[in-house]
Design brief:
Number of domains: 1
Largest sheet: 5 strands, parallel
Radius of gyration: 16 Å
Shape: globular
Distance between the termini: 18 Å
Number of strands: 9
Number of helices: 7
CATH class: Alpha Beta
CATH superfamily: P-loop containing nucleotide triphosphate hydrolases
Structural class: alpha/beta
Order of helices and strands: EHEEEHEEHEHEHHEH
CATH topology: Rossmann fold
Oligomer: single chain
Helix content: 40-55%
Strand order of the largest sheet: 2-7-1-8-9
């Protein structure tokens, strides 16, 4: 019996509130399934401790980000939490799909909505926390924001939690391995 054919390459958007574990889940997926292309977003925010330019994000200046917008080189972009801008360079995503690879975007809700407008054939996955209390615990526990930034992110997260119905699939991130396994099934890997 021959193996089942692989699913045709498709863009999958993973979104959810700050602190839900999007980055952790997608990083584990990348480690377990290196054949999946994971897009690296461009951002104007400074690197956090341990982040590597080109691996975690493409750290760019405000001027460089403006140039990407002017060149229509971003699939989506947004100002997030009223601070830094984030965007998805389009060329690497197109190249990965053309090469037959499944492609993942890990982006915020604003970006997911833009991608839905430009790529309605994409698959949209909302990563949800097991509870609001757990989301707060995770956001506080990561220690990457000031108390003021954390409050702004939690306020944004409340609104984002109400957007689950806009997505094709919801994965509750109770445990990273379980969430990755569910994502792998959705990707048909």
């Amino acid at each position: 019996m021959s193996p089942a054919p692989a699913r045709p390459p498709r863009l999958t958007v993973v979104s959810g509130p700050a602190g839900v574990g999007k980055g952790t889940v997608v990083a584990r997926l990348r480690a377990e399934r290196p054949e999946v292309f994971v897009s690296v977003s461009a951002t104007t925010r400074p690197p956090r401790g341990g982040e590597v330019d080109g691996e975690h994000y493409l750290f760019v200046s405000e001027e460089e980000f403006d140039e990407l917008i002017a060149a229509d080189a971003l699939l989506e972009w947004a100002t997030v939490h009223g601070a830094a801008r984030y965007g998805t360079p389009y060329a690497p995503v197109r190249a990965a799909l053309a090469a037959g690879r499944q492609a993942i975007l890990e982006i915020d809700l604003q970006g997911a909505r833009q991608v839905r407008d430009t790529c309605p054939q994409a698959r949209f996955v909302f990563l949800a926390p097991p509870s609001w209390e757990e989301l707060v615990r995770r956001l506080v526990g990561r220690g990457t924001e000031t108390p003021e930034q954390r409050e702004k992110r939690l306020l944004t997260a409340k609104g984002e939690m109400n957007s689950m119905a806009e997505f094709d699939h919801v994965i509750v991130n109770s445990e990273v391995g379980q969430a990755v396994d569910e994502l792998i099934v959705l990707l048909g890997l």
